[in-house]
């Protein structure tokens, strides 16, 4: 496989794992530091089993890593730059439908919170 296609394929696979809104929420929560499944579930409003499923996919693509404290599993971003990259990526969002104003405001609030 030509190197450019191989690189593009790997990037597409990486972006696929990021393409779920709940995974982005989980990454945002991890941007402020390590968290366990229970605290991620509480912060996102997801069931712990659902958080675990998302973390499994993120771990498989090496987006997050884990460490153990006894029976507790603590997760963290493998690269803190990823959270910054996601926030900066919001600059490319250009809502063009009837909810454009609502979406713009939501993006502005999210960028503000995630950049803290």
UniProtKB/TrEMBL annotation:
Pfam families: HTH_5. Residues 3-97 form the HTH arsR-type domain. The keyword Glycoprotein does not apply. GO terms for molecular function: DNA binding; DNA-binding transcription factor activity. Keywords: DNA-binding, Transcription, Transcription regulation. This is Putative HTH-type transcriptional regulator. It comes from Neorhodopirellula pilleata.
